[in-house]
Structure formats: C-alpha cells, structure tokens
C-alpha cells in the first residue's frame, strides 16, 4: 500500500471515528451550557477534510485565503443557526 493510500485510509477512518463519536454524543443528556461541545468533532472533521482531501497545505496563497474566508463565513452561519436552539426555553405544557 502506498503512502498516499495510507493517508486517505487514515483520514477516512478518522472521519468515521469522529462521526461515530458525534452521533453517540448526541444521545447524552447534556446541559444546555455543554451543548456547544458537540461541535468539536465537526470541527475536527472539517480540519481533516481541508488538510487531507482538499490539499490546502499545498495550495497557492489565494486558495488558502478563500478557504479561510469560507471557514469564517461558515462559522458565522453556524453561530447564527445555533442561537435559537441554545437560547430556547422549554415551557411545561399545562393541559
């Protein structure tokens, strides 16, 4: 097995492991203040894909700039999307 194939296999197994970690952590009864920690496996997956598959390390500086800008806007969009679930208050239903 060549070095390139080992890198891809390692990345794929790491992505599977992080996905399993994130999926299993979703079933934990976490307090609302600890819920943002569920994003850590996702950030690891993004970093793996950017470094291993997209080849950002070997790309020209303009491509690196666009990748950083994309991560910046993705962070803003995910942050805005998290505002609602993280600040929602559960009211008991009286029936």
Overall description:
It is flat and about 65 Å long. It has one domain (3-87). It has helices spanning 3-25, 40-53, 61-87. With 95 residues, the chain is an all-alpha fold. The protein contains three helices and no strands.
Mean pLDDT: 84
Extended strand count: 0
Approximately what portion of the residues adopt beta-strand conformation? Answer: under 5%
Residues in helices, as a percent range: 55-70%
Estimated structural class: mainly alpha
The count of domains is 1
- The backbone outline, from C-alpha atoms, is flat
Helix count from the secondary structure assignment: 3
| Contiguous runs where pLDDT drops below 50 for at least 5 residues | none
Largest sheet composition: none
Question: H/E series, N to C?
Answer: HHH
Alpha carbon gyration radius: 18 Å
N- and C-termini, Cα separation: 64 Å
Structure summary:
Helices cover 67% and strands 0% of the residues. With 95 residues, it is mostly helical.
Features:
mainly alpha, 95 residues
Topology:
Blueprint: H1 3-25, H2 40-53, H3 61-87
Helix pairs in contact: 1-2
